[in-house]
Amino acid sequence: MPSAEWGVLIADDEPAARRGVRQLLAAFPAFAVVGECRDGDEVLASLDRLRPHVVFLDVQMPGIGGFEVIRRRTPERMPPVVFLTAYDQFALRAFEAQALDYLVKPVTEARFAATMKRLVRQLRGAAPASREQAIVVTTSRGAAVLPVREIDWIEASDNYARIWTGGRSYLLRESMRVLETRVQTHGFLRAHRRALVRLGAVRTLTWDGDSGLVAVLASGARIPVSRRRRTAFAAAVRGQGSRKS
């Protein structure tokens, strides 16, 4: 295909699944399929031979599966990877393996288009090793991927953490301590014992006679800041503002 900018390798042991990806890719002429693989051994051989720009990689294949392909190749030597699977329970492992996206079969045209938009953005901009950090949660509709940069704040909720993004919330069975470790390098800070706030989401700090210092987020949420954290939290918010200006 003369107009194609990027080569695609499709790896799935099911011919119908490979054909499905081909059909969906037909709507994106900037991408051309340069090869198809049925198992992990073929993928490892094809990566050097075909040098694709992106790999659509099935999680479960005979012999070597998708995760083992990345482990043997190492994430640093992989092109952007979009995982394919019939099950959503592998979503967290997919993002820990630095996958660009994770598609549950059968894939809808709208979901595939969203993936291709992210893929084009990465191929035209960030280096392949630069993966967007995300948290994967399970919902009634399957797995939802929440980019860390879009999360407003996180609160403890019994044995769960409630993640707030864009006015919606999602439950994740993970401790606040573990979550804090995952997000603290992305501009999150404790407002009080049960709340982590993304500093970039803070619109203003205000004083409430009953609650004391309150962080008002762009979403409208109001998060009280505990007495012992006020000084550090306010300084961090001011620092965030100075970096933006």
Task: Calculate the terminal CA-CA distance, rounded to whole Å.
Answer: 46 Å
User: CATH homologous superfamily name of the largest domain?
Assistant: Response regulator
Which CATH class of the largest domain is shown? Alpha Beta
- The number of domains is 2
Strand content: 25-35%
Query: Could you describe the largest sheet, including whether it forms a barrel?
Result: 5 strands, parallel
Helicity, in percent? 25-40%
Structural class: alpha/beta
How many beta-strand segments?
15
Task: State the CATH topology of the largest domain.
Answer: Rossmann fold
Uncertain regions: pLDDT < 50 for 5+ in a row?
126-130
**Number of helices, where a helix is a run of at least 4 consecutive DSSP H or I residues:** 7
Quick check: average pLDDT?
Answer: 87
Shape: elongated
Q: H/E order of the elements? A: EHEHEHEHEHEEEEEHEEEEEH
User: Which CATH-level-2 architecture of the largest domain?
Assistant: 3-Layer(aba) Sandwich
Rounded Rg: 21 Å
Biggest sheet strand order reads 2-1-3-4-5
Summary of the model, kept short:
It is built from seven helices and 15 strands. With 245 residues, the protein is an alpha/beta fold. It has a five-stranded parallel sheet, with helices on both faces. Strands 10-9-8-12-11 form a five-stranded antiparallel sheet. The protein has a three-stranded antiparallel sheet with strand order 13-14-15, covered by helices on one side.
